[in-house]
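Cross-posting from the modeling subforum.

Setting up a comparison between two proteins and wanted a second pair of eyes on the formatting. Protein 1 (sequence, then C-alpha coordinates):
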Amino acid sequence: MGTPRPRRFEFPIANKARQFLAATSGCRLHALFELALHTGFRKGELLGLRWENLDLTGGTASIRRTLQRTNTGGLVALPTKTQSSERRIALPTPCLRSLARHRDQQRRERETAGESWQDRGYVFTRPNGAPIEGATLTRHFTALLRATLRRIRFHDLRHSAATLLLEQGIELVVIKELLGHAHIGVTATVYAHVRLRLQRQAIDTLGDALRAPKSPNGPPSAEPVRWRCRQRCRQDAERPHRTNFRWGLSALIRKSLPAIPSRPDGPAAGRAPAPGNHQDLRIQPG
Protein backbone atom coordinates (compact mmCIF):
# COMPACT_ATOMS: atom_id res chain seq x y z
CA MET A 1 0.00 0.00 0.00
CA GLY A 2 1.56 3.31 -1.12
CA THR A 3 1.78 6.52 0.80
CA PRO A 4 -1.42 8.57 0.36
CA ARG A 5 -1.28 11.82 -1.51
CA PRO A 6 -1.68 14.96 0.64
CA ARG A 7 -5.16 16.41 0.79
CA ARG A 8 -6.26 19.94 1.50
CA PHE A 9 -8.80 20.34 4.27
CA GLU A 10 -10.35 23.03 6.39
CA PHE A 11 -9.66 22.97 10.10
CA PRO A 12 -10.38 25.33 12.99
CA ILE A 13 -7.34 27.08 14.39
CA ALA A 14 -6.74 27.21 18.13
CA ASN A 15 -9.19 30.02 18.93
CA LYS A 16 -11.87 28.43 16.73
CA ALA A 17 -11.30 25.11 18.46
CA ARG A 18 -11.84 26.76 21.84
CA GLN A 19 -15.02 28.38 20.55
CA PHE A 20 -16.21 24.99 19.35
CA LEU A 21 -15.66 23.40 22.77
CA ALA A 22 -17.45 26.28 24.47
CA ALA A 23 -20.38 25.96 22.06
CA THR A 24 -20.75 22.24 22.78
CA SER A 25 -20.38 22.55 26.57
CA GLY A 26 -24.10 22.05 27.16
CA CYS A 27 -24.45 19.30 24.56
CA ARG A 28 -25.28 15.75 25.57
CA LEU A 29 -22.26 14.47 23.57
CA HIS A 30 -19.83 17.15 24.72
CA ALA A 31 -17.43 14.50 26.02
CA LEU A 32 -17.29 12.90 22.57
CA PHE A 33 -16.44 16.18 20.80
CA GLU A 34 -13.85 17.07 23.42
CA LEU A 35 -12.27 13.64 23.13
CA ALA A 36 -12.17 13.92 19.33
CA LEU A 37 -10.40 17.28 19.42
CA HIS A 38 -7.92 16.27 22.13
CA THR A 39 -6.97 12.85 20.79
CA GLY A 40 -7.68 12.78 17.06
CA PHE A 41 -9.77 9.61 17.32
CA ARG A 42 -11.68 8.65 14.18
CA LYS A 43 -15.47 8.80 14.20
CA GLY A 44 -15.85 5.01 14.19
CA GLU A 45 -13.27 4.66 16.95
CA LEU A 46 -15.19 7.07 19.17
CA LEU A 47 -18.55 5.39 18.54
CA GLY A 48 -17.03 1.93 19.08
CA LEU A 49 -15.42 2.88 22.39
CA ARG A 50 -16.61 0.81 25.36
CA TRP A 51 -16.34 1.56 29.05
CA GLU A 52 -14.08 -1.44 29.44
CA ASN A 53 -11.60 0.32 27.13
CA LEU A 54 -11.36 3.34 29.44
CA ASP A 55 -9.28 3.62 32.58
CA LEU A 56 -10.43 6.85 34.17
CA THR A 57 -8.26 6.22 37.22
CA GLY A 58 -5.10 5.61 35.20
CA GLY A 59 -6.10 8.21 32.60
CA THR A 60 -5.84 6.05 29.45
CA ALA A 61 -8.02 4.92 26.56
CA SER A 62 -7.51 1.79 24.44
CA ILE A 63 -8.76 1.66 20.86
CA ARG A 64 -9.70 -1.91 19.96
CA ARG A 65 -12.75 -1.75 17.64
CA THR A 66 -14.49 0.66 15.30
CA LEU A 67 -18.26 0.95 14.85
CA GLN A 68 -19.34 0.78 11.19
CA ARG A 69 -22.48 0.06 9.21
CA THR A 70 -22.18 -2.80 6.74
CA ASN A 71 -24.48 -3.89 3.95
CA THR A 72 -25.02 -7.32 5.47
CA GLY A 73 -24.70 -7.05 9.22
CA GLY A 74 -25.99 -3.54 9.84
CA LEU A 75 -24.24 -1.55 12.58
CA VAL A 76 -21.42 -3.73 13.89
CA ALA A 77 -18.09 -3.38 15.69
CA LEU A 78 -15.23 -4.20 13.34
CA PRO A 79 -11.47 -4.46 13.78
CA THR A 80 -9.60 -1.19 13.52
CA LYS A 81 -8.46 0.21 10.18
CA THR A 82 -4.92 -1.15 10.54
CA GLN A 83 -2.96 -3.03 13.18
CA SER A 84 -1.29 0.24 14.16
CA SER A 85 -4.74 1.72 14.82
CA GLU A 86 -5.00 -0.51 17.89
CA ARG A 87 -3.37 1.69 20.48
CA ARG A 88 -3.54 2.98 24.01
CA ILE A 89 -3.03 6.67 24.65
CA ALA A 90 -3.03 8.93 27.68
CA LEU A 91 -6.05 11.17 28.20
CA PRO A 92 -5.81 14.79 29.32
CA THR A 93 -7.47 15.93 32.52
CA PRO A 94 -10.35 17.85 30.81
CA CYS A 95 -11.36 14.69 28.93
CA LEU A 96 -11.27 12.60 32.10
CA ARG A 97 -13.59 15.07 33.84
CA SER A 98 -15.97 15.17 30.88
CA LEU A 99 -16.07 11.38 30.67
CA ALA A 100 -16.80 11.09 34.40
CA ARG A 101 -19.73 13.49 34.04
CA HIS A 102 -20.89 11.62 30.93
CA ARG A 103 -20.84 8.33 32.87
CA ASP A 104 -23.04 9.83 35.59
CA GLN A 105 -25.41 11.16 32.93
CA GLN A 106 -25.61 7.74 31.28
CA ARG A 107 -26.49 6.14 34.63
CA ARG A 108 -29.40 8.54 35.01
CA GLU A 109 -30.57 7.78 31.48
CA ARG A 110 -30.39 4.08 32.24
CA GLU A 111 -32.60 4.51 35.30
CA THR A 112 -35.06 6.52 33.23
CA ALA A 113 -35.15 3.99 30.39
CA GLY A 114 -35.71 1.04 32.72
CA GLU A 115 -36.25 -2.24 30.90
CA SER A 116 -35.97 -0.60 27.47
CA TRP A 117 -32.30 0.16 28.08
CA GLN A 118 -30.00 -1.61 25.60
CA ASP A 119 -26.91 -2.58 27.54
CA ARG A 120 -24.19 -2.83 24.89
CA GLY A 121 -21.39 -1.32 26.96
CA TYR A 122 -20.72 1.63 24.62
CA VAL A 123 -19.55 4.93 26.04
CA PHE A 124 -21.51 7.13 23.61
CA THR A 125 -25.06 5.96 22.99
CA ARG A 126 -28.59 7.10 22.35
CA PRO A 127 -30.73 7.92 25.42
CA ASN A 128 -31.91 4.27 25.43
CA GLY A 129 -28.39 2.80 25.32
CA ALA A 130 -28.41 1.92 21.63
CA PRO A 131 -25.23 2.67 19.65
CA ILE A 132 -25.04 5.82 17.56
CA GLU A 133 -24.67 5.61 13.81
CA GLY A 134 -21.98 7.66 12.10
CA ALA A 135 -24.51 9.49 9.89
CA THR A 136 -26.54 10.48 12.95
CA LEU A 137 -23.45 11.90 14.66
CA THR A 138 -22.58 13.85 11.50
CA ARG A 139 -26.03 15.47 11.36
CA HIS A 140 -25.84 16.39 15.02
CA PHE A 141 -22.36 17.83 14.56
CA THR A 142 -23.44 19.91 11.55
CA ALA A 143 -26.42 21.30 13.44
CA LEU A 144 -24.15 22.47 16.26
CA LEU A 145 -21.81 24.24 13.85
CA ARG A 146 -24.61 26.00 11.99
CA ALA A 147 -25.34 28.21 14.98
CA THR A 148 -21.76 28.98 16.01
CA LEU A 149 -18.93 28.28 13.55
CA ARG A 150 -18.37 27.78 9.86
CA ARG A 151 -19.14 24.35 8.51
CA ILE A 152 -16.39 21.74 8.67
CA ARG A 153 -16.33 17.97 8.49
CA PHE A 154 -16.28 15.85 11.62
CA HIS A 155 -13.02 14.30 10.39
CA ASP A 156 -11.49 17.80 10.46
CA LEU A 157 -11.44 17.56 14.25
CA ARG A 158 -8.84 14.82 13.82
CA HIS A 159 -6.82 17.02 11.46
CA SER A 160 -7.14 19.91 13.89
CA ALA A 161 -5.66 17.84 16.70
CA ALA A 162 -2.66 16.88 14.56
CA THR A 163 -2.17 20.44 13.31
CA LEU A 164 -2.24 21.93 16.80
CA LEU A 165 0.25 19.30 17.99
CA LEU A 166 2.61 20.16 15.12
CA GLU A 167 2.33 23.85 15.93
CA GLN A 168 3.31 23.09 19.52
CA GLY A 169 6.50 21.42 18.36
CA ILE A 170 5.46 17.82 19.12
CA GLU A 171 7.60 15.26 17.27
CA LEU A 172 6.06 13.65 14.20
CA VAL A 173 6.55 10.13 15.56
CA VAL A 174 4.44 10.97 18.64
CA ILE A 175 1.65 12.36 16.45
CA LYS A 176 1.82 9.23 14.30
CA GLU A 177 1.28 7.06 17.40
CA LEU A 178 -1.60 9.20 18.63
CA LEU A 179 -3.39 9.09 15.28
CA GLY A 180 -2.73 5.39 14.76
CA HIS A 181 -1.14 5.74 11.32
CA ALA A 182 0.46 2.65 9.81
CA HIS A 183 3.83 4.38 9.33
CA ILE A 184 5.27 7.84 9.81
CA GLY A 185 5.29 8.50 6.06
CA VAL A 186 1.49 8.77 6.15
CA THR A 187 1.66 11.43 8.85
CA ALA A 188 4.42 13.34 7.08
CA THR A 189 2.54 13.34 3.76
CA VAL A 190 -0.92 14.25 5.04
CA TYR A 191 0.42 17.17 7.07
CA ALA A 192 3.18 18.24 4.67
CA HIS A 193 1.58 21.66 4.13
CA VAL A 194 1.50 22.30 7.88
CA ARG A 195 5.16 21.35 8.22
CA LEU A 196 6.06 23.65 5.30
CA ARG A 197 4.31 26.55 7.01
CA LEU A 198 6.16 25.83 10.25
CA GLN A 199 9.44 25.65 8.31
CA ARG A 200 8.78 29.11 6.86
CA GLN A 201 8.15 30.45 10.35
CA ALA A 202 11.38 28.85 11.57
CA ILE A 203 13.36 30.38 8.69
CA ASP A 204 11.85 33.80 9.38
CA THR A 205 12.74 33.47 13.06
CA LEU A 206 16.32 32.57 12.14
CA GLY A 207 16.49 35.58 9.82
CA ASP A 208 15.35 37.87 12.62
CA ALA A 209 18.05 36.46 14.88
CA LEU A 210 20.77 37.02 12.28
CA ARG A 211 19.63 40.55 11.48
CA ALA A 212 21.54 43.21 13.47
CA PRO A 213 19.29 44.97 16.00
CA LYS A 214 18.38 48.59 15.44
CA SER A 215 19.55 51.10 18.04
CA PRO A 216 17.62 54.38 18.57
CA ASN A 217 20.85 56.41 18.76
CA GLY A 218 23.00 54.16 16.65
CA PRO A 219 23.39 53.15 13.06
CA PRO A 220 20.87 51.63 10.70
CA SER A 221 21.03 47.86 10.84
CA ALA A 222 22.27 47.68 7.22
CA GLU A 223 25.56 49.50 7.74
CA PRO A 224 26.82 49.13 11.32
CA VAL A 225 30.50 48.80 10.35
CA ARG A 226 30.48 51.85 8.10
CA TRP A 227 28.83 53.90 10.83
CA ARG A 228 31.45 52.87 13.40
CA CYS A 229 34.24 53.88 11.03
CA ARG A 230 32.71 57.31 10.57
CA GLN A 231 32.31 57.72 14.32
CA ARG A 232 35.94 56.74 14.93
CA CYS A 233 37.21 59.21 12.30
CA ARG A 234 35.14 61.98 13.84
CA GLN A 235 36.52 61.26 17.30
CA ASP A 236 40.07 61.21 15.96
CA ALA A 237 39.56 64.56 14.29
CA GLU A 238 38.27 66.10 17.53
CA ARG A 239 41.09 64.60 19.61
CA PRO A 240 44.19 64.49 17.39
CA HIS A 241 46.47 63.40 20.22
CA ARG A 242 44.74 60.03 20.10
CA THR A 243 45.37 59.37 16.44
CA ASN A 244 48.84 58.03 17.13
CA PHE A 245 48.73 55.29 19.71
CA ARG A 246 52.51 55.13 20.14
CA TRP A 247 52.75 58.86 20.63
CA GLY A 248 49.97 58.83 23.18
CA LEU A 249 51.58 55.97 25.09
CA SER A 250 54.96 57.73 25.14
CA ALA A 251 53.37 60.92 26.40
CA LEU A 252 51.62 58.99 29.15
CA ILE A 253 54.90 57.35 30.24
CA ARG A 254 56.75 60.70 30.30
CA LYS A 255 54.06 62.25 32.47
CA SER A 256 54.18 59.41 34.96
CA LEU A 257 58.00 59.33 35.48
CA PRO A 258 60.18 61.93 37.37
CA ALA A 259 62.31 64.27 35.36
CA ILE A 260 65.84 62.92 34.51
CA PRO A 261 68.67 65.46 33.86
CA SER A 262 70.18 65.40 30.45
CA ARG A 263 73.77 64.16 29.97
CA PRO A 264 76.48 66.87 29.62
CA ASP A 265 77.96 67.60 26.21
CA GLY A 266 81.64 67.78 25.34
CA PRO A 267 84.60 65.68 26.27
CA ALA A 268 83.21 64.92 29.72
CA ALA A 269 80.22 63.16 28.20
CA GLY A 270 79.97 59.53 29.22
CA ARG A 271 82.17 59.99 32.31
CA ALA A 272 80.95 60.16 35.87
CA PRO A 273 80.50 63.79 37.02
CA ALA A 274 82.96 65.20 39.48
CA PRO A 275 81.83 65.41 43.07
CA GLY A 276 80.10 68.66 43.89
CA ASN A 277 79.71 69.70 40.24
CA HIS A 278 76.24 68.19 39.68
CA GLN A 279 72.83 68.38 41.26
CA ASP A 280 72.37 65.75 43.92
CA LEU A 281 69.11 63.92 43.14
CA ARG A 282 69.01 62.10 46.46
CA ILE A 283 66.63 63.29 49.09
CA GLN A 284 68.60 64.91 51.91
CA PRO A 285 67.43 64.37 55.47
CA GLY A 286 65.68 67.50 56.78
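Protein 2 (same layout):
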Amino acid sequence: MGSGSRVAPPALAGVDKAAVLLLSLGPDAATSVLRHLGEAEVRQVSQALARVRALEPEQLERVHEEFGRRLHASGVAVDGRQFARTVVTKALGDATPASGAVLAELESAGGAALTKILGDLPAAGLARVLAAEHPQIATIVLAHLGAAHASEVLACLPEDLQSDVVERLARLASVPATLVEEVGTALRAQAQALLRPAGATCGGPRVVAELMNSADKTIEARVFEQIEARNPELVSTIRNLMFTFEDCIKLDNRSLQTLLKEVAREDLLLALKTASPDLSAKIFANVSSRAAEILREDMASSGPVRLKDVEEAQLKIVAVLRELEAEGKIVVAGQGKGDVLV
Protein backbone atom coordinates (compact mmCIF):
# COMPACT_ATOMS: atom_id res chain seq x y z
CA MET A 1 0.00 0.00 0.00
CA GLY A 2 1.33 3.48 -0.90
CA SER A 3 2.30 5.91 1.78
CA GLY A 4 -0.46 8.34 0.62
CA SER A 5 -3.33 5.90 1.11
CA ARG A 6 -5.29 5.63 4.36
CA VAL A 7 -7.03 2.64 5.90
CA ALA A 8 -10.76 3.27 6.24
CA PRO A 9 -11.89 3.24 9.88
CA PRO A 10 -13.78 0.09 10.89
CA ALA A 11 -17.59 0.08 10.97
CA LEU A 12 -19.02 0.83 14.39
CA ALA A 13 -21.63 -1.10 16.33
CA GLY A 14 -24.71 0.72 17.61
CA VAL A 15 -23.40 1.26 21.14
CA ASP A 16 -20.07 2.51 19.76
CA LYS A 17 -21.91 4.99 17.53
CA ALA A 18 -23.72 6.25 20.63
CA ALA A 19 -20.38 6.65 22.41
CA VAL A 20 -18.91 8.65 19.52
CA LEU A 21 -21.99 10.92 19.41
CA LEU A 22 -21.89 11.55 23.18
CA LEU A 23 -18.18 12.32 23.13
CA SER A 24 -18.75 14.88 20.37
CA LEU A 25 -21.54 16.51 22.36
CA GLY A 26 -19.43 17.10 25.48
CA PRO A 27 -19.79 15.97 29.12
CA ASP A 28 -22.79 18.16 30.07
CA ALA A 29 -24.99 17.05 27.19
CA ALA A 30 -23.81 13.45 27.53
CA THR A 31 -24.75 13.45 31.22
CA SER A 32 -28.24 14.73 30.39
CA VAL A 33 -28.70 11.93 27.85
CA LEU A 34 -27.48 9.21 30.21
CA ARG A 35 -30.05 10.28 32.83
CA HIS A 36 -32.76 8.99 30.50
CA LEU A 37 -31.22 5.52 30.06
CA GLY A 38 -31.66 2.43 32.16
CA GLU A 39 -28.90 1.02 34.35
CA ALA A 40 -27.94 -1.70 31.85
CA GLU A 41 -27.86 0.80 28.97
CA VAL A 42 -25.70 3.21 30.97
CA ARG A 43 -23.27 0.40 31.70
CA GLN A 44 -23.00 -0.56 28.01
CA VAL A 45 -22.56 3.03 26.83
CA SER A 46 -20.01 3.88 29.54
CA GLN A 47 -17.93 0.83 28.58
CA ALA A 48 -18.05 1.89 24.92
CA LEU A 49 -16.98 5.42 25.93
CA ALA A 50 -14.02 4.00 27.82
CA ARG A 51 -12.88 2.07 24.73
CA VAL A 52 -12.59 5.18 22.58
CA ARG A 53 -9.04 6.48 22.26
CA ALA A 54 -9.50 8.92 19.38
CA LEU A 55 -12.28 10.25 17.20
CA GLU A 56 -11.55 9.79 13.52
CA PRO A 57 -13.01 12.64 11.45
CA GLU A 58 -14.62 10.19 9.02
CA GLN A 59 -16.19 8.19 11.85
CA LEU A 60 -17.50 11.33 13.48
CA GLU A 61 -18.96 12.59 10.20
CA ARG A 62 -20.70 9.27 9.48
CA VAL A 63 -22.17 9.08 12.98
CA HIS A 64 -23.51 12.65 12.76
CA GLU A 65 -24.95 12.04 9.30
CA GLU A 66 -26.72 8.86 10.43
CA PHE A 67 -28.07 10.58 13.55
CA GLY A 68 -29.34 13.47 11.41
CA ARG A 69 -31.09 11.11 8.99
CA ARG A 70 -32.80 9.19 11.77
CA LEU A 71 -33.85 12.38 13.54
CA HIS A 72 -35.26 13.82 10.32
CA ALA A 73 -37.14 10.60 9.53
CA SER A 74 -38.74 10.00 12.92
CA GLY A 75 -38.72 13.38 14.63
CA VAL A 76 -38.28 13.72 18.36
CA ALA A 77 -40.71 14.41 21.19
CA VAL A 78 -39.72 17.47 23.20
CA ASP A 79 -41.25 19.68 25.85
CA GLY A 80 -40.61 23.05 24.25
CA ARG A 81 -42.06 25.03 27.15
CA GLN A 82 -39.87 23.27 29.71
CA PHE A 83 -36.83 23.60 27.45
CA ALA A 84 -37.46 27.34 27.13
CA ARG A 85 -37.76 27.68 30.92
CA THR A 86 -34.47 25.83 31.43
CA VAL A 87 -32.62 27.90 28.84
CA VAL A 88 -33.94 31.21 30.21
CA THR A 89 -33.08 30.24 33.79
CA LYS A 90 -29.53 29.24 32.86
CA ALA A 91 -29.00 32.32 30.70
CA LEU A 92 -30.52 34.97 32.98
CA GLY A 93 -30.22 33.34 36.38
CA ASP A 94 -32.69 31.68 38.70
CA ALA A 95 -35.33 33.93 40.31
CA THR A 96 -33.91 37.15 38.88
CA PRO A 97 -36.11 40.05 37.70
CA ALA A 98 -34.96 39.49 34.11
CA SER A 99 -35.70 35.76 34.04
CA GLY A 100 -38.99 36.30 35.88
CA ALA A 101 -40.16 38.79 33.28
CA VAL A 102 -39.27 36.52 30.35
CA LEU A 103 -40.86 33.46 31.97
CA ALA A 104 -44.03 35.44 32.69
CA GLU A 105 -44.21 36.39 29.00
CA LEU A 106 -43.83 32.72 28.05
CA GLU A 107 -46.78 31.77 30.25
CA SER A 108 -49.07 34.61 29.21
CA ALA A 109 -48.38 34.04 25.51
CA GLY A 110 -49.77 30.51 25.74
CA GLY A 111 -52.79 31.73 27.66
CA ALA A 112 -53.61 34.47 25.15
CA ALA A 113 -53.72 31.96 22.29
CA LEU A 114 -55.85 29.62 24.35
CA THR A 115 -58.33 32.31 25.33
CA LYS A 116 -58.77 33.11 21.65
CA ILE A 117 -59.60 29.48 20.88
CA LEU A 118 -62.01 29.11 23.80
CA GLY A 119 -63.74 32.37 23.00
CA ASP A 120 -65.15 30.92 19.77
CA LEU A 121 -66.72 27.88 21.42
CA PRO A 122 -70.55 28.08 21.80
CA ALA A 123 -71.53 28.32 25.45
CA ALA A 124 -74.16 25.57 25.24
CA GLY A 125 -71.81 23.11 23.53
CA LEU A 126 -68.97 23.79 25.93
CA ALA A 127 -71.33 23.45 28.90
CA ARG A 128 -72.49 20.01 27.66
CA VAL A 129 -68.87 18.86 27.54
CA LEU A 130 -68.07 20.25 30.98
CA ALA A 131 -71.19 18.80 32.58
CA ALA A 132 -69.81 15.32 31.91
CA GLU A 133 -66.45 16.15 33.51
CA HIS A 134 -65.35 16.59 37.11
CA PRO A 135 -66.44 20.01 38.50
CA GLN A 136 -62.78 21.04 38.85
CA ILE A 137 -62.35 20.70 35.07
CA ALA A 138 -65.29 23.05 34.54
CA THR A 139 -63.71 25.42 37.08
CA ILE A 140 -60.41 25.53 35.19
CA VAL A 141 -62.20 26.19 31.91
CA LEU A 142 -64.32 29.05 33.29
CA ALA A 143 -61.18 30.57 34.76
CA HIS A 144 -59.80 30.88 31.23
CA LEU A 145 -62.84 32.55 29.69
CA GLY A 146 -63.80 36.19 29.75
CA ALA A 147 -66.44 37.11 32.32
CA ALA A 148 -69.24 37.45 29.76
CA HIS A 149 -68.54 34.12 28.04
CA ALA A 150 -67.98 32.35 31.36
CA SER A 151 -71.35 33.58 32.66
CA GLU A 152 -73.06 32.21 29.53
CA VAL A 153 -71.40 28.82 30.02
CA LEU A 154 -72.34 28.88 33.71
CA ALA A 155 -75.97 29.53 32.81
CA CYS A 156 -75.96 26.45 30.56
CA LEU A 157 -74.55 24.14 33.24
CA PRO A 158 -76.95 22.02 35.32
CA GLU A 159 -78.26 23.99 38.30
CA ASP A 160 -76.79 21.60 40.86
CA LEU A 161 -73.36 22.09 39.30
CA GLN A 162 -73.41 25.89 39.09
CA SER A 163 -72.84 26.73 42.77
CA ASP A 164 -70.18 24.00 43.09
CA VAL A 165 -68.20 25.42 40.18
CA VAL A 166 -68.53 29.02 41.38
CA GLU A 167 -67.29 28.11 44.87
CA ARG A 168 -64.37 26.18 43.40
CA LEU A 169 -63.55 29.11 41.13
CA ALA A 170 -63.53 31.52 44.06
CA ARG A 171 -60.97 29.31 45.79
CA LEU A 172 -58.81 28.76 42.71
CA ALA A 173 -55.48 30.60 42.79
CA SER A 174 -53.41 29.14 39.93
CA VAL A 175 -53.27 26.14 37.64
CA PRO A 176 -50.00 24.21 37.15
CA ALA A 177 -48.82 23.93 33.56
CA THR A 178 -49.00 20.13 33.56
CA LEU A 179 -52.60 20.12 34.79
CA VAL A 180 -53.68 22.72 32.25
CA GLU A 181 -52.11 20.70 29.46
CA GLU A 182 -53.78 17.51 30.69
CA VAL A 183 -57.15 19.27 30.66
CA GLY A 184 -56.49 20.46 27.12
CA THR A 185 -55.51 16.99 25.95
CA ALA A 186 -58.52 15.33 27.59
CA LEU A 187 -61.07 17.73 26.07
CA ARG A 188 -59.37 18.53 22.77
CA ALA A 189 -61.41 16.05 20.73
CA GLN A 190 -64.68 17.31 22.24
CA ALA A 191 -64.10 21.06 22.42
CA GLN A 192 -61.08 21.82 20.19
CA ALA A 193 -58.58 22.08 23.04
CA LEU A 194 -58.43 23.82 26.36
CA LEU A 195 -55.38 25.54 27.77
CA ARG A 196 -54.36 28.67 29.78
CA PRO A 197 -51.50 30.64 31.32
CA ALA A 198 -49.61 27.98 33.19
CA GLY A 199 -49.25 28.90 36.83
CA ALA A 200 -50.91 32.25 36.33
CA THR A 201 -53.53 33.59 38.71
CA CYS A 202 -56.83 32.66 37.13
CA GLY A 203 -59.46 32.28 39.84
CA GLY A 204 -60.47 33.75 43.17
CA PRO A 205 -63.32 35.91 44.43
CA ARG A 206 -62.55 38.78 42.04
CA VAL A 207 -62.92 36.51 39.00
CA VAL A 208 -66.23 35.24 40.35
CA ALA A 209 -67.36 38.82 41.00
CA GLU A 210 -66.71 39.76 37.37
CA LEU A 211 -68.49 36.62 36.20
CA MET A 212 -71.51 37.29 38.39
CA ASN A 213 -71.71 40.90 37.27
CA SER A 214 -72.48 39.52 33.80
CA ALA A 215 -74.70 36.67 34.96
CA ASP A 216 -78.49 36.62 34.99
CA LYS A 217 -79.91 37.77 38.33
CA THR A 218 -81.85 34.55 38.90
CA ILE A 219 -78.67 32.52 38.52
CA GLU A 220 -76.80 34.91 40.80
CA ALA A 221 -79.44 34.65 43.51
CA ARG A 222 -79.66 30.85 43.33
CA VAL A 223 -75.89 30.28 43.30
CA PHE A 224 -75.24 32.68 46.18
CA GLU A 225 -78.07 31.22 48.23
CA GLN A 226 -76.58 27.73 47.92
CA ILE A 227 -73.01 28.83 48.65
CA GLU A 228 -74.09 31.08 51.54
CA ALA A 229 -75.52 28.04 53.33
CA ARG A 230 -72.00 26.56 53.32
CA ASN A 231 -69.75 29.61 53.36
CA PRO A 232 -71.42 32.99 54.09
CA GLU A 233 -68.06 34.80 54.40
CA LEU A 234 -67.11 33.83 50.84
CA VAL A 235 -70.40 35.17 49.50
CA SER A 236 -69.88 38.42 51.39
CA THR A 237 -66.38 38.79 49.92
CA ILE A 238 -67.61 38.20 46.39
CA ARG A 239 -70.54 40.60 46.76
CA ASN A 240 -68.23 43.35 48.02
CA LEU A 241 -66.13 42.93 44.89
CA MET A 242 -69.07 42.80 42.50
CA PHE A 243 -70.03 46.43 42.97
CA THR A 244 -67.78 49.00 44.60
CA PHE A 245 -68.58 52.51 45.74
CA GLU A 246 -66.77 53.89 42.69
CA ASP A 247 -69.21 51.95 40.49
CA CYS A 248 -71.97 54.29 41.68
CA ILE A 249 -70.95 56.46 38.74
CA LYS A 250 -72.69 53.87 36.53
CA LEU A 251 -76.09 54.58 38.12
CA ASP A 252 -78.55 56.73 36.25
CA ASN A 253 -79.45 60.01 37.97
CA ARG A 254 -82.79 58.78 39.31
CA SER A 255 -81.26 55.65 40.85
CA LEU A 256 -78.40 57.66 42.35
CA GLN A 257 -80.84 60.13 43.90
CA THR A 258 -82.84 57.26 45.40
CA LEU A 259 -79.64 55.81 46.86
CA LEU A 260 -78.45 59.11 48.32
CA LYS A 261 -81.76 59.60 50.14
CA GLU A 262 -81.21 56.32 52.00
CA VAL A 263 -77.53 56.84 52.84
CA ALA A 264 -76.42 58.27 56.18
CA ARG A 265 -74.82 61.69 55.75
CA GLU A 266 -71.82 60.69 57.88
CA ASP A 267 -71.18 57.65 55.68
CA LEU A 268 -71.40 59.71 52.50
CA LEU A 269 -68.99 62.31 53.90
CA LEU A 270 -66.41 59.58 54.69
CA ALA A 271 -66.96 57.72 51.41
CA LEU A 272 -66.28 60.85 49.35
CA LYS A 273 -62.78 61.12 50.87
CA THR A 274 -61.34 58.75 48.24
CA ALA A 275 -63.96 59.13 45.50
CA SER A 276 -62.78 60.05 42.02
CA PRO A 277 -63.45 63.61 40.80
CA ASP A 278 -66.01 62.28 38.29
CA LEU A 279 -67.99 60.38 40.94
CA SER A 280 -67.86 63.31 43.36
CA ALA A 281 -69.13 65.65 40.65
CA LYS A 282 -72.00 63.29 39.81
CA ILE A 283 -73.01 62.97 43.46
CA PHE A 284 -72.94 66.75 44.00
CA ALA A 285 -75.05 67.16 40.85
CA ASN A 286 -77.70 64.81 42.23
CA VAL A 287 -78.30 66.53 45.55
CA SER A 288 -79.74 69.96 46.22
CA SER A 289 -77.48 72.98 45.89
CA ARG A 290 -77.67 73.55 49.64
CA ALA A 291 -76.80 69.93 50.42
CA ALA A 292 -73.88 70.03 47.99
CA GLU A 293 -72.58 73.23 49.57
CA ILE A 294 -72.75 71.74 53.08
CA LEU A 295 -71.00 68.59 51.94
CA ARG A 296 -68.14 70.59 50.38
CA GLU A 297 -67.77 72.72 53.52
CA ASP A 298 -67.72 69.66 55.78
CA MET A 299 -65.17 67.91 53.58
CA ALA A 300 -62.93 70.97 53.59
CA SER A 301 -63.08 71.34 57.36
CA SER A 302 -62.79 67.67 58.29
CA GLY A 303 -59.38 66.39 59.29
CA PRO A 304 -57.59 63.19 58.23
CA VAL A 305 -59.48 59.94 58.73
CA ARG A 306 -58.44 56.32 58.69
CA LEU A 307 -58.64 54.61 55.31
CA LYS A 308 -60.33 51.70 57.05
CA ASP A 309 -63.18 53.99 58.15
CA VAL A 310 -63.57 55.29 54.59
CA GLU A 311 -63.72 51.77 53.17
CA GLU A 312 -66.28 50.70 55.78
CA ALA A 313 -68.48 53.69 54.93
CA GLN A 314 -68.27 52.84 51.25
CA LEU A 315 -69.24 49.22 51.97
CA LYS A 316 -72.26 50.45 53.94
CA ILE A 317 -73.38 52.51 50.96
CA VAL A 318 -72.95 49.56 48.62
CA ALA A 319 -74.98 47.42 51.04
CA VAL A 320 -77.80 49.99 50.90
CA LEU A 321 -77.57 49.93 47.11
CA ARG A 322 -77.92 46.12 47.11
CA GLU A 323 -81.01 46.33 49.32
CA LEU A 324 -82.63 48.91 47.05
CA GLU A 325 -81.79 46.82 44.01
CA ALA A 326 -83.30 43.70 45.59
CA GLU A 327 -86.48 45.69 46.35
CA GLY A 328 -86.63 46.83 42.72
CA LYS A 329 -86.30 50.52 43.65
CA ILE A 330 -83.14 51.06 41.57
CA VAL A 331 -81.51 49.34 38.60
CA VAL A 332 -77.79 48.72 38.30
CA ALA A 333 -77.29 48.90 34.55
CA GLY A 334 -75.00 46.47 32.77
CA GLN A 335 -75.40 43.51 35.14
CA GLY A 336 -77.04 40.74 33.19
CA LYS A 337 -78.87 40.85 29.89
CA GLY A 338 -82.22 41.59 31.51
CA ASP A 339 -80.96 44.80 33.09
CA VAL A 340 -80.21 46.69 29.89
CA LEU A 341 -82.04 50.03 29.99
CA VAL A 342 -84.01 51.04 26.89
